[in-house]
Design brief:
This protein is an alpha/beta fold. Helices cover 45% and strands 15% of the residues.
Length: 429
């Protein structure tokens, strides 16, 4: 099965590269660093690789990169003689990593993960010589795991989660996924339910550590930007719709237009699409509704006020999600109005914001249910319900404050996964 899988990778490679080039029309980062994706590097002497031990952390995109922040910071603190090679699959993940970890200087390198063929992964390992491979959340690559095993590099799946849907997909892959699972030295699972599903694939060692995302520290710079943004907005109520996905903005805008009398006067709708390549598309969508729109990238945040005529603010900046959460009064977390699995609600909770979430949260099932049970989040049925529920919260400061306090208490209660994960890694590094 793995041979067949490898042959299919090579046959698909021209199409994969063509797709990269096409995606590069909207996001130029996809046309950069192709050599890294193919496992091609400069000669060893020019690679910048030091004699220091190297720890490899793979975070596929933005969400995983941000989730990895507490772990990366802790690894560099606990292993002061080591460096980290941080790999990604998307330009936005790479850009997020660059912004988050610039503070570490040359102790952290970045690269794209090579495509999952034996030769490409082998070249990566020969070049960087990692002591351990730490995959974040759900990344399982059969050839990567097999090559790491052959070269004595233990593979760890950290902050791991596996939904029932993903388990069914993995099971359909049969021996390919089962062999890969047996090659993982350690899985640090977010919940016991995740752990049970992962054990059913044949992973020899699975421990429950909780979610590392609860350990995230809100940067002071993000709070400062959030305060400046809020000052520019003024005293208007702010409803944030964060990490929205394709199809959701239309529903949200229609509901917003249909509910002007339900929402408090002058309520500002702040929309932050999850994928930056959709910023222009969403701006056109807002304008087509006859709404006055401004873009965050065009706000100077120099003390001047945003025009009161602006009805929708488009969050079109990278790495400022904490700032957006800080500036809002109520936060809706996207990916949940449609069957997309939802997104991480820990960040707004960690800032003490009342959280609204849709019906489709299967990718974050337990954390969502825990937040609901703690009174820090509320589930809405559709976009119209989003507006009516937000209107009630925006009109009632006491209820809003209570819900925000519950969200903050919920986030604080679940901290500690990073230290638990590090204690397990000591046996492998």
């Amino acid at each position: 099965m793995r041979l067949f899988y490898s042959v299919m990778w090579w046959l698909a490679l021209p199409l994969v590269l063509a797709r990269l080039w096409l995606r590069g029309r909207k996001e130029p980062g996809y046309r950069q660093h192709w050599g890294e994706r193919l496992g091609l590097y400069r000669r060893i002497g020019a690679s910048g690789r030091a004699a220091a031990p190297v720890l490899w952390v793979h975070a596929v995109s933005v969400g995983e990169t941000r989730a990895a922040e507490p772990l990366v910071d802790a690894l560099l603190a606990d292993y002061p003689q080591s460096r980290i090679i941080l790999t990604h699959m998307t330009p936005t993940g790479r850009a997020t990593g660059k912004a988050l970890f610039a503070k570490h200087g040359d102790r952290l390198l970045q690269s794209y993960l090579p495509y999952d063929t034996g030769s490409m992964v082998s070249r990566f390992i020969r070049h960087f010589r990692p002591q351990v491979c730490i995959l974040m959340e759900t990344e399982v690559w059969p050839n990567l795991i097999a090559v790491c095993g052959a070269k004595g590099v233990p593979v760890v799946l950290a902050n791991a989660r596996l939904s029932e849907r993903s388990l069914r997909k993995a099971t359909r892959l049969g021996s390919l996924m089962q062999n890969a699972a047996r090659g993982i030295a350690l899985v640090a699972a977010q919940t016991e339910a995740d752990a049970q599903r992962i054990r059913s694939l044949g992973v020899p060692r699975v421990e429950v550590t909780g979610s590392i995302k609860f350990d995230v520290v809100v940067p002071d710079t993000a709070l400062a930007i959030g305060a400046s943004l809020r000052a520019a907005i003024g005293e208007r109520p702010v409803l944030l719709c964060a990490s929205t996905r394709e199809g959701e903005e239309e529903l949200i805008l229609q509901a917003y237009v249909s509910a002007p009398s339900a929402l408090p006067a002058a309520t500002l709708l702040l929309i932050v699409p999850r994928h930056p390549q959709r910023f222009d598309e969403v701006e056109k969508m807002i304008a087509a509704r006859g709404l006055t729109v401004a873009r965050r990238s065009q706000l100077a945040l120099d003390g001047s006020a945003m025009p009161h005529s602006v009805e929708v603010l488009l969050g079109d900046s990278m790495g400022e999600m904490f700032a957006y959460y800080s500036a809002c009064d109520v936060a809706f977390v996207g990916g949940s109005l449609m069957p997309l699995g939802g997104q991480n609600l820990i960040e707004p909770a960690a800032l003490g914001k009342p959280v609204l979430i849709g019906q489709h949260t299967f990718n974050f099932e337990l954390v969502t249910e825990d937040a609901l049970a703690a009174g820090g989040a509320q589930r809405i049925t559709d976009a119209a319900d989003l507006m009516s529920t937000a209107a009630l919260l925006l009109s009632n400061s006491t209820q809003r404050a209570t819900m925000g306090d519950n969200a903050l208490a919920f986030a604080n209660q679940h901290r500690g996964a990073t230290r638990r994960t590090l204690s397990l890694l000591k046996d492998l590094i």
